[in-house]
Amino acid sequence: MHLVNMIFNTITMAMHQTILDNLDRIEQQHNVTILWACESGSRAWGFPSPDSDYDVRFIYAHQPSAYIRVFDKRDVIEEPIDGLLDINGWDIKKALGLLRKSNPALMEWLSSPIIYKQHAAIQPLTELAKDAFLPISSCHHYLSMARQDINKLVIGSDIRLKKYLYMFRALLAAQWVIEHGTQPPMRFQELVQRFLPSGDIKEQIDELLHLKTNVLESEMIPAQEDLDQYLLALYGRLEKQIPAPLSAPNTESFDACLLKTLLTLHPHGRFTNAN
To answer: Could you count the other beta carbons within 10 Å of the beta carbon of residue 4?
Structure first.
């Protein structure tokens, strides 16, 4: 299944192997176990350019003894960007803390269609994520993403091609959250099919998607007045429909998730020395 996803996203076998080799190296170098590694960003959304980065994100766990220290170990691993390869990850404890807030970036990682590594010990977290989703957090996130570019939108000026797609994806994702109350699909095409199955706007988006697969990330295009008007109107409407806040899940379920994850990794309770 993962191989089909990678081919569909123009991730070559060579790059796939390079990513796996880097993930293996990170595990050995940092003495951690990678529980989940996926693609995020434009490749996971379904509209990469030829020079799009490979945004690899992962969740990892230290040895169990790292979680009973007075002073916590660093909870992120950040690799220097190497060409188009951008790899970084979060410790399981950090990920659980952010999950309780329904962190939208983490939610997207967990719903990515391109998965590089998946350990059985990630299951408690993915199960917990189903109950941790907070529509208001997600909606604010996507509207904020759209707002950054919509506030700069000057009808009649040239605009970077990818910005149109970013704005549409963010707003359609917010619309999904408002109407369905669930995590929106990562695939942009799924959102378009749900909310814009036909019509002039759909045709123009299809043209932009086709163009983006053949030009560089920096490609500029003339403003599309009808797209601009549609985006501005949709943003204004969605801002008035933000969901009501919900209570965050209780902390006990997150503590239990951490323990279950560690016991899955170390079923005999061997608390080895954490370097």
So the answer is: 9
62 lies in which domain range? 2-131+247-265
Q: Is the pLDDT of residue 275 over 70?
A: no
Task: Compare 244 and 271 and report the one with higher pLDDT.
Answer: 244
Both tokens assigned to 127? 């199960």
Query: Per-residue pLDDT tens for 129-157?
Result: 999 999 999 999 999 999 988 887 766 67
- Asked if residue 270 belongs to a domain, the reply is no
List alpha helices for the chain, DSSP H.
2-8, 13-30, 42-45, 92-100, 104-110, 123-132, 135-150, 161-180, 188-195, 200-212, 225-239, 251-265
DSSP-derived secondary structure letter, 3: H
Helix (H) or strand (E) holding 58: strand 54-61
Question: Tens digits of per-residue pLDDT, 173-215?
Answer: 999 999 999 999 999 999 999 999 999 999 999 999 999 989 9
Distance between CA atoms of 115 and 113, rounded to whole angstroms? Answer: 6
Q: 121 and 18 in one domain?
A: yes
d(Cα 194, Cα 188) in Å, to the nearest integer?
10
